Amino acid sequence: xxxxxxxxxxxxxxxxxxxxxxxxxxxxxxxxxxxxxxxxxxxxxxxxxxxxxxxxxxxxxxxxxxxxxxxxxxxxxxxxxxxxxxxxxxxxxxxxxxxxxxxxxxxxxxxxxxxxxxxxxxxxxxxxxxxxxxxxxxxxxxxxxxxxxxxxxxxxxxxxxxxxxxxxxxxxxxxxxxxxxxxxxxxxxxxxxxxxxxxxxxxxxxxxxxxxxxxxxxxxxxxxxxxxxxxxxxxxxxxxxxxxxxxxxxxxxxxxxxxxxxxxxxxxxxxxxxxxxxxxxxxxxxxxxxxxxxxxxxxxxxxxxxxxxxxxxxxxxxxxxxxxxxxxxxxxxxxxxxxxxxxxxxxxxxxxxxxxxxxxxxxxxxxxxxxxxxxxxxxxxxxxxxxxxxxxxxxxxxxxxxxxxxxxxxxxxxxxxxxxxxxxxxxxxxxxxxxxxxxxxxxxxxxxxxxxxxxxxxxxxxxxxxxxxxxxxxxxxxxxxxxxxxxxxxxxxxxxxxxxxxxxxxxxxxxxxxxxxxxxxxxxxxxxxxxxxxxxxxxxxxxxxxxxxxxxxxxxxxxxxxxxxxxxxxxxxxxxxxxxxxxxxxxxxxxxxxxxxxxxxxxxxxxxxxxxxxxxxxxxxxxxxxxxxxxxxxxxxxxxxxxxxxxxxxxxxxxxxxxxxxxxxxxxxxxxxxxxxxxxxxxxxxxxxxxxxxxxxxxxxxxxxxxxxxxxxxxxxxxxxxxxxxxxxxxxxxxxxxxxxxxxxxxxxxxxxxxxxxxxxxxxxxxxxxxxxxxxxxxxxxxxxxxxxxxxxxxxxxxxxxxxxxxxxxxxxxxxxxxxxxxxxxxxxxxxxxxxxxxxxxxxxxxxxxxxxxxxxxxxxxxxxxxxxxxxxxxxxxxxxxxxxxxxxxxxxxxxxxxxxxxxxxxxxxxxxxxxxxxxxxxxxxxxxxxxxxxxxxxxxxxxxxxxxxxxxxxxxxxxxxxxxxxxxxxxxxxxxxxxxxxxxxxxxxxxxxxxxxxxxxxxxxxxxxxxxxxxxxxxxxxxxxxxxxxxxxxxxxxxxxxxxxxxxxxxxxxxxxxxxxxxxxxxxxxxxxxxxxxxxxxxxxxxxxxxxxxxxxxxxxxxxxxxxxxxxxxxxxxxxxxxxxxxxxxxxxxxxxxxxxxxxxxxxxxxxxxxxxxxxxxxxxxxxxxxxxxxxxxxxxxxxxxxxxxxxxxxxxxxxxxxxxxxxxxx
Length: 1212
Prior knowledge:
Elements: H1 47-61, H2 69-82, H3 97-110, H4 116-133, H5 139-155, H6 161-171, H7 180-187, H8 192-196, H9 204-218, H10 229-244, H11 253-272, H12 283-295, E1 304-305, E2 320-321, H13 370-373, H14 406-436, H15 439-442, H16 446-449, H17 463-469, H18 473-487, H19 491-494, H20 510-531, H21 535-551, H22 562-569, H23 578-591, H24 599-606, H25 668-678, H26 701-717, H27 719-722, H28 726-737, H29 742-763, H30 777-788, H31 792-796, H32 802-812, H33 817-822, H34 825-838, H35 844-857, H36 861-864, H37 867-880, H38 886-909, H39 912-917, H40 920-933, H41 938-954, H42 957-960, H43 963-981, H44 986-1000, H45 1011-1026, H46 1030-1040, H47 1052-1067, H48 1075-1078, H49 1081-1098, H50 1104-1112, H51 1114-1131, H52 1149-1170, E3 1185-1187, E4 1200-1204, E5 1207-1211
Helix pairs in contact: 1-2, 2-4, 3-4, 3-5, 4-6, 5-6, 6-9, 9-10, 9-11, 10-11, 11-14, 12-14, 14-18, 17-18, 18-21, 20-21, 21-23, 23-26, 25-26, 26-29, 28-29, 28-30, 29-32, 32-35, 34-35, 35-37, 35-38, 37-38, 37-40, 38-41, 40-41, 40-43, 41-43, 41-44, 43-44, 43-45, 44-46, 45-46, 45-47, 46-49, ...
């Protein structure tokens, strides 16, 4: 039968006897346990495959009606269980998943539920094969096995359920969403998993396996849908209840730790398996309280009464002394270390690379800083005083060898190991909470995990306690990860912190509490940096410091926090571990990025070489001291190393300096990064291996990449300090661009872009950088000439690395326009030709960058007047607007907006000549393309409407009268109207209002006689009165005040509508539900007042009745009040600050007065010409009198508007 299935069956073992003799079954027999991991190492790698194939063939040949079915099944299951399929030990194993699924399905059909020992062995086999071979089951196999184990739980005896649940946990691993039909039986009201996972379950092993099953059901693998919220909520409540329940009496603490581990794993799966919303009330606080308690599981010296719930509060909730017996309640922990000194076992000193570790990474010896050792307790102290003492490191406590016998010592070590795993699991859960819950919700719980200041009494138990004093480096690393997750993205929360003002005695502001918390974090993490010996944990300490530096508001704190940290980190740049060196550079990058330029960091950068890291400055870990210059010995002993004078100058690059630059202090950090990128390392670190390049090899790629990142940050934030090294940094970038590593090339291009951007920022007028402080133009031109003569051209043409091409395009766009004009013509032509060519790239990233660069070049003064370049750029942009990629279309719309800005500039500077040279058909295509783009996504639309406004402003009378422009013109205006009235983002609507006002500036537009003009004014009137965003209102009011002639506003009805809309908006200028909008109310009133005076200045006699009625009503008083304020602001009087951000033109007060006088005189003359006279309020022409009256008492002019039976009075 085996031959028929294609399998060869070796019937005998190596010694000629049956390899797996049958075993008699009995109720008392112990279930079969697989052999050890090393039992089959002597066999060839193919033995496992052969055995599996042989047994699979035999198993498939069995039939349910076989006489010896029971014995043969028992033998085959034993054979399959005895083999080790772990690929770690036998990497050549190649057993197909479908063969495993076939074997398990067939075996489940052969093993009856009445044969409970065979059921146990089958369940063990399911766990054994699926777990070791990492098999992903198909749906049919999953259904068959789920049916089998579910039936076994219902039919078989309770003593088998432990193994059945173990198989179930393996089957449902990551498959919870596919087992919906079985979850009601397992997790229902009377489900077997709920029964066995109850804290009252007497069988602790059943409880542990049931919790493991539930955790695996909740587990969500990447790309899978989450488990149904109904079942996930049931599991969550079970896990939380288990964590909150006390340890049952007469339960071994070791086994209970295993139960807690399973519950913690399940809770982590629940929180990480998709978006999780905590229920109302105290659910989140209960979870945080349970996790905080378990964070200190088994920690020596902890004997406190933990709160059952944590509440959000600005002040920490300190734990009180425990009133419960430690043996009765699992919340309470007790120290388990004795006071006697440990006798020496005669072992030699451990080397720097062979620090003592337990199985879980516990340290037996960890050197602490002096500040930590001050809190240590004496030899004669008793454990009863432990609650009044700071947590002393458990691995620093000494025990006698005679205190425990060997079995007892082993049990204690195992208990410490499991306690450490519980603490680690609790921190993993806490990390999932920090990542899954909204930041604003968690800010209220910060005080429970981060102390605000060191205390004189018992220290609060926080994350910093674990970071400083836990014995396991893995646990300390987890605590650092949690703290990093809390600090990440907390910039807006910590921005409140401030301690620069003098302290208050009556109360402590919350801002001061946050500031002290930041200082306490600095203090504790600095101590952890001194004490840490594990390179992996040390890396986490430095990363956590980087998160703190990136989010803390140092400009609001007293100086002095960053200087010690800067100097403390200097020796670690020579650490032997690559990851530590990379994290140090990350921290330096955060230091030069945070609130740059920061005065304290600027002073640190200006310090001469070596003053920031003195010659005696070494890391506390002697394994890291001067590893580059230490004697080449295989195992350096743990003895103090005398630092040499060369240690702090190891990375000083030799850069030639001009005579004028000799006295300039170059930042030590800049020289360090340049050296790390360009100079070969003098020795290899222990973690890099031996023989990977010799002494001429450069630093590892991660170190060089991070050094380039720091250089970019340094150039961006402190360009004035790095500009003296402009050419040298350019040479570093050129060298990076010439290397083979694409990542190095990419960072080299990014560095060039930062240099170019820094130069542009210096030459911008609004930055007010003195001419003497700028990089000389000749040096800028020389810099770019060297760049273009280097490998940048190759990067631009490297089609194999589109990301590099993209970065190279960004570099081209960062050139100073004045410097571009002084480059040789062939260089200019090369840049333009390359960019135009790259817009046809098949990669959307390259095309996006090229189109953006053309949008930058079109604004260059030396190019914008070139009609041919403008036309070529326009055609390229129009083609990009039709691209499938929304990113390309967004940048094309932005470039089109810049191009139309250039058209307006040329119209104002060059004049009609440029307008006549530009093709009418090209303008028509641009108008139509911008109209189509205005219906695209918001990020395309915002610049498309900007381009529409510019084009409508640019068109001449001869073009507007042509029939071919009539329909596109109407479509363009209606597109703007639709965008103004839409529910798009406020940025889009702001741009649309701006574009509308820009279009109104074109005197050739037929505003007064076109049907679309009425829609335009109606849309602006609606926005100015109803839009929630005040900046949009401001821009719409400014647009309504743009037309310079009364005829542009249409008939009297439309003019009156505009007036009433502005008056209503002025009356409601302070009505808003959003406090953030209130800061723009002054600017809104200023713009509205200016618009009303503009309408009054161009009004005609037929408009007077409507204006008079408005001024006579309730809104008349509001108008008078705000117009008085407006004239005071224009005069520069009281309340001038904050009122002038109107976005419109402003005139002198006397000009305003003269304008009003002329308006009223004109209205009076027009009224006299008509000859129409009526009495009372129904007059068509109101008598206008102008009286200029000085108010010496106020020192200012006042304006009075009113309507009387004799006319409209304006008194200034």
